[in-house]
Write a structure and sequence with these properties.
six-stranded parallel β-sheet, Rossmann fold, single chain, alpha/beta, 12 strands, binds 2'-monophosphoadenosine-5'-diphosphate, 2 domains, six-stranded mixed β-sheet
């Protein structure tokens, strides 16, 4: 299989390693090529991808929206989110999907199934591209509340219409309001880049009032144990680390390309070792 990734910067992407593991699982040979592309080279890379006859590719920052104008078909779920992270190429036809939100949902559900029993309350911190997919997926799951807090509160307000159900309640909050009400939530998800290497001492909000039975989740996976997760852990809350979302969104993309089922469990310790080695 011929696969790839377009984005910038992506030199240190872990996706080639992950997809090689999936290829081995299904006993297929293949390549996963990094097409690191600055915006002025975008057209050129698109041409190259066509010439290279790929079976599919991933799309990451900053092209998840740009790629949409190059597609022949768009999955309705990706259309509603307004971003594409996976393109399947079938007989020269480009079909766009988004596996980020479902990847996150699958990751959290597999580690904490208890969050999906009863009417739980969720707080999302951040309102950027990553938050968008996560909010979309979560507002369609069986939660009581999915609130969004953001530094720029208007951006959180802008995401609220993505919740089209009348079952799940959603509000836009300031970080101060979020900080003062962390004890009300069963799941708190950090979706910004705050705390990412090298600024590892940064933390989006204080968790001093968090409950011990709350799950605190961070999509940052470099470092694996962010300052945010570390505070939650010290208080005695449960933590959910960001590399699992990376693995599940990759799994879902790979399954679209290969039409075969793969599992992430054999990759977990290998990926953790790579990430710890990079710290
Ligand atoms: P991504 O696509 O990775 O989510 P993005 O769309 O640029 O990236 O969104 C970045 C998110 O991180 C936003 O919620 C942003 O807050 P603003 O909307 O107020 O800009 C948030 N963010 C980034 N740096 C931040 C910081 N230092 N403090 C608080 N929030 C930050």
């Amino acid at each position: 299989m011929k696969l790839g990734l377009i984005g910038y910067p992506i030199k240190h992407s872990l996706s080639p390693w992950i997809h090689q593991q999936f290829l081995q699982q299904i006993d297929r040979n293949g390549t996963y090529v990094i097409y690191e592309t600055k915006s002025e080279q975008f057209q050129e890379t698109i041409k190259k991808i066509q010439e290279d006859k790929l079976d599919g590719f991933n799309v990451t920052v900053p092209y998840k929206q740009t790629i949409m104008t190059y597609l022949d078909e768009l999955d309705p779920y990706a259309a509603e989110i307004g971003a594409v992270n996976t393109v399947v190429i079938q007989n020269g036809k480009w079909i766009g999907y988004n596996t980020d939100g479902t990847g996150y949902l699958t990751a959290i559900e597999s580690q904490f199934p208890r969050l999906f029993n009863g009417e739980k309350r969720v707080l999302i911190l951040g309102a950027g591209g990553a938050a968008r997919g996560i909010f979309y997926a979560l507002s369609r799951a069986s939660f009581h509340t999915v609130d969004i807090a953001n530094r720029t509160i208007e951006k959180a307000t802008d995401l609220l219409p993505l919740n089209i159900t009348d079952k799940v309640n959603s509000r836009a909050l300031s970080f101060q309001e979020a900080e003062e009400s962390v004890q009300d939530y069963n799941l708190i998800i950090q979706t910004t880049s705050v705390g990412m290497k090298p600024a590892v001492k940064e933390q989006i909000i204080s968790l001093q009032y968090v409950n011990k039975d709350t799950v605190v989740s961070d999509i940052v996976y470099q470092p694996l144990m962010t300052q945010f997760l570390s505070e939650a852990y010290q208080i005695g809350a449960s933590i959910h680390q960001g590399h699992t979302m990376l693995l599940y969104q990759a799994k879902l993309a790979f399954q679209l390309w290969s039409e075969r089922e793969v599992t992430i469990e054999p990759l977990l310790t290998g990926l953790e070792d790579i990430l710890k080695g990079n710290e």
